[in-house]
Amino acid sequence: MSHTAEIIAVGTELLLGNIANTNAQAISQSLSSLGVNVFWHTVVGDNPERLREALDIARRRADIIITTGGLGPTYDDLTKQTISAAFGKKLVFHPDILEDIRRYYASALHVPMPESNAQQAEFPEDCEIFDNPVGTAPGCAFESGGVHVLMLPGPPHEMTTMLRRHVEPYLRRLSQEVILSHDIMTFGMGESSVEALLRDQMEKMTNPTLATYAKPSEVRLRATAKAATQAAAEAMLAPVVAEVKALLGPIVYGMDVSGLPEACLNMLKEKKLTFATAESCTGGQIAERITALPGASQVYRGGVVSYWTSVKNAVLGVPQEILDQHGAVSEETARAMADGARRITGADIAVSVTGAAGPDPDERGTPVGIVYIGLSTPEGTHCRSLNLGKRRRDRIQNLATNHAYDVIRRYLSNLPIN
Amino acid sequence: MSHTAEIIAVGTELLLGNIANTNAQAISQSLSSLGVNVFWHTVVGDNPERLREALDIARRRADIIITTGGLGPTYDDLTKQTISAAFGKKLVFHPDILEDIRRYYASALHVPMPESNAQQAEFPEDCEIFDNPVGTAPGCAFESGGVHVLMLPGPPHEMTTMLRRHVEPYLRRLSQEVILSHDIMTFGMGESSVEALLRDQMEKMTNPTLATYAKPSEVRLRATAKAATQAAAEAMLAPVVAEVKALLGPIVYGMDVSGLPEACLNMLKEKKLTFATAESCTGGQIAERITALPGASQVYRGGVVSYWTSVKNAVLGVPQEILDQHGAVSEETARAMADGARRITGADIAVSVTGAAGPDPDERGTPVGIVYIGLSTPEGTHCRSLNLGKRRRDRIQNLATNHAYDVIRRYLSNLPIN
Known about the structure:
The structure is a homodimer. By secondary structure, the first copy, chain A, is of the alpha/beta class. Chain A contains 14 helices and 17 strands. Chain A has helices spanning 12-15, 22-33, 48-61, 79-86, 95-109, 156-174, 191-204, 230-248, 260-271, 285-291, 309-314, 320-326, 331-345, 393-412; strands spanning 4-10, 37-44, 64-68, 91-93, 122-124, 128-130, 139-144, 147-152, 178-187, 209-215, 218-227, 252-255, 275-279, 300-305, 349-355, 370-377, 380-387. In chain A, strands 2-1-3-8-7-6 form a 6-stranded mixed β-sheet, sandwiched between helices. A 5-stranded mixed β-sheet of chain A has the order 14-13-15-16-17, sandwiched between helices. In chain A, helix 2 (22-33) runs parallel beside helix 6, helix 3 (48-61) packs across helix 4 (79-86) and helix 9 (260-271) packs parallel to helix 14. Chain A is elongated, with a radius of gyration of 26 Å. At the A-B interface, helix 2, strand 2, helix 3, strand 10 and strand 13 of A face helix 2, strand 2, helix 3, strand 10 and strand 13 of B.
């Protein structure tokens, strides 16, 4: 049986544009991989009449309603009261939950719990309570007249923790099946070209299924299987993953990783190698992407942001003749930057980027979008030349960063750099 | 007369969680500063029946409906057809608009226009067409029975361009007043403390109004005035801005700027000074934030990401005795890193960050959240010591980056660093 869900976010800060509704995105991704159809997102303010109206509409068109927000301790946090009234349920006080919240205040927040928090320990009768190890507001879920209502806190970190710990297991229990997904990550080909290569597979498949999700410059392929057990689902996915990898070849860079930096982190760890960076037009983004990941210090030694040409010479040791003759944006400079970064940090390999990110051409007239990626290795120095076209500055920087990591992972996989 | 708006986003990719609904956020911010109440956001897939249902609900509860998405050239782009049917309007073909689209293909995309794009030149009768200088899908607006319907394209870059060029002027015409806002930017005090300082002002004001918007570690204060003319609105805002600045003092770092990096960029440009960076736990984020801004090369020379201790010594020249005696995470190392970055880049000033971003303490047992910011200047070297507590890694990195820029702007403003 297929379920239909509506996600209702409660919070005036969303309607003021203070924040984007990233909770709905995270829940949608999760439900999509569980095989639950999401047909509606609704956002409503901290207003009980309008929340009631949203609930009345949602229960007519969905059998799973997930709300986020409005579970806090203040007077305008009215989600539990409004939902309980809409579904004819009393609120019941749980003293044990209040003790949990009091302990969280003492151990994590180091302040005594304000007494207004007592309302956070009230829940609709006959519900399942979802504990919140990273905040004060527990969530809950109940079923009424064939409609499942799940209430989650608004802060994204608390919401996603509860989503993994409680919501996904709750929804899996609604179905007798195990639903399992693997994400096959690709870089270097547009979504429509990837789909064209896989059209026969994608069209004929019903279980497992294969879907594409595009990010700027990357395509994620999600293979999803439904089966009676985890092992059976894995067995169904294995040949699909193998076939996709065979059809797409070297554009596949990993499975179930967050992106190219994490794929490189894992490969470098396994090979016990370290790397360094020398960045011009990406301005520190290559460094920032790897150091955002825990454990980066095992493989990343450091790097130089040589934004001015003088820094390329003085810090990275790019010879002044190369800079004068070929310019700061050139293959020769990219190679010398990578060599310099490797030498001064002592890393096993080093990647470099120099290019024109715009909005204007560089001082020598290099057109926006021209980018060179250098890679210095013990076996020699390589370069990838790119023309990324006249895109927006942030897109050129983002794409150049991904190309830098793609050059690293191709080197580590013994694939040609270009 | 106060208007009430509903924002309807059309796109299955939103319901799959492929992207977040940042369009609704941008439109909400804009409408909020125009004095239009946004009471609902709705997201619906590329499905004409469900879009029709969303429209029927929205027209009962809002007098401004803004849709995003579904204006493309493919068979599932059905927004204009569905809305026209819902409001009893015929679609009319505009040959001049098709020529505009054809020219856009030739000049910006360098490919001939597919003939399927003809539907992008069809619009509901009696509507105002919004041209799209950065994409192929024009938008449009009409009024029917007291309800204004505005259709905008889905790609965020196209949507925001049209929002500024067409939607804001259209909505301003609905009111006889000019609505003008200024954003007063602060760093260093929580939202509730800022509100406590300004409570008297905020409560007694009706026009101008003053509202707070919190980002992690920053609070933006928006002062908004309604008046008959721009000059009259400016005259009403001036004393409010002055009073807020006087009450908040040095935590105010600028007005109408995107953040601390842009405030520093402007101040450095004005003083014709350059800066450099030396980053450990922020891993390149300080560099990345400034180089994301066009014109950064006027003030930013470059920097070093000295993630490994050996790089602090070899590249930045931090004396080995300091590293041995005080450790990589120490005030002494922060000062020496900043001095080293200034020396090797030749910049006028340099900022450094060293700290423990977690998830684990550093090898000497420095607790997560301990961070030192160094600032090297011609007049001497300064340090700000921070205990950011046991937060998530990305929050510590983000907060440390903002502190680094705050140290720079306080130095440039002749304010004490600490």
